[in-house]
Specification:
It is a multi-pass membrane protein. GO terms for molecular function: phosphate transmembrane transporter activity. Keywords: Cell membrane, Membrane, Transmembrane, Transmembrane helix, Transport. The structure is a single chain. This protein has eleven helices and no strands. By secondary structure, the chain is mainly α.
């Protein structure tokens, strides 16, 4: 045996042992996280599954727990998410494309990139305070669905930008070089080649951002969302010309997390069951949005042949 061979084998064995221990620790932490999530979900199901009747989705909140529903809450959540997606999706994707494909490499771009990355970690209450001073008081948008959607849109905007940049960065540079070699312009390369290959990652980031936004409470409370509302905003679509109604944007609102907060603060145990049922609906809706992201990513990758 050559000198030093034994020491080398001992070192390799120690490294393999460390790898096995690290893998085991990671798997244990993953299983514990899944166990905690499953326990919380089962607890919500046990407490609130009996309340998941059609009337629970079609009734307004009430002072009587047995007659209370989440109609105004889930409608408000859907409308707020529509405004959030309309505000964050085009701006975030466009900003990600510009930073990755068009922005010059200078100090200004570096400052923008650092700020975008830092904004992704800002607490959500800060966005609520910003919206309260800027949107509610300065622009006089009031405590409305539009204000809530723009607030949550600002909150998830850094997530959309970062996910867009990562998805674009994953596209091989050879695809761009081949398109440029055939005489395509930068915009044609971006539109016809880069975006189709990166759409799966972009959609995943967008839906994950929306999944985070739908469960936020602090910024919504800060801008003045109602805790009890027994009416619906005007319908976005009407039966008379011009068939599109924008009055709902300025309407008062509530969302599912706020309705849960209202019920959980009541001393009556029956309201606790209502809160658990609303939480179960919110968890299912979040899981559905994440499942949609996985499905869209699968479909987008299936259409692409490298």
């Amino acid at each position: 045996m050559e000198p030093g061979t034994h020491d080398l084998r001992v070192l390799i064995g120690r490294q393999r042992l460390c790898d096995v221990l690290f893998e085991g620790l990671g798997a244990f932490m993953l299983l514990m996280s899944l166990f905690i999530l499953a326990a919380l979900f089962i607890n919500l199901a046990i407490e609130g599954l009996a309340r998941l009747q059609p009337d629970f989705f079609l009734d307004f909140p009430s002072r009587r727990a047995g007659q209370a529903g989440i109609l105004s809450a889930w409608v408000g959540s859907v409308l707020v998410m529509l405004v959030t997606a309309a505000a964050a999706l085009p701006v975030g994707v466009a900003a990600g494309i510009w930073l990755e494909e068009y922005a010059p490499k200078n100090w200004l771009t570096d400052v923008v990139e650092i700020n975008v990355t830092n904004l992704a970690g800002v607490p959500s209450i800060i966005y609520g305070l910003l919206a309260l001073g800027l949107l509610v008081h300065q622009f006089r948008l009031g405590e409305s669905i539009l204000t809530a959607g723009l607030t949550l849109g600002m909150m998830i905007l850094p997530v959309v930008i970062v996910s867009t940049r990562e998805a674009i960065r994953a596209v091989p540079q050879t695809i761009r070089e081949a398109a440029y070699g055939l005489g395509a312009s930068r915009w044609r390369v971006t539109r016809d080649h880069v975006l189709p290959y990166s759409v799966a990652g972009i959609l995943t980031g967008v839906i994950i951002g929306l999944s985070r936004a739908i469960g936020e409470t602090a910024p919504i409370i800060t801008i003045g969302a109602l805790t009890f509302i027994a009416f619906l905003p005007p319908a976005p679509v009407s039966a008379v010309p011009p068939f599109i109604n924008f009055e709902w944007l300025s309407s008062p609102f509530t969302v599912l997390p706020i309705q849960m907060f209202n019920w959980i603060s009541r001393p009556d145990p029956a309201f606790q069951s209502n809160a658990a049922a609303a939480g179960l609906v919110l968890v299912i809706l979040t899981l559905f949005m994440n499942a949609m992201a996985i499905w869209l990513r699968y479909r987008a990758r299936k259409r692409i042949k490298w």
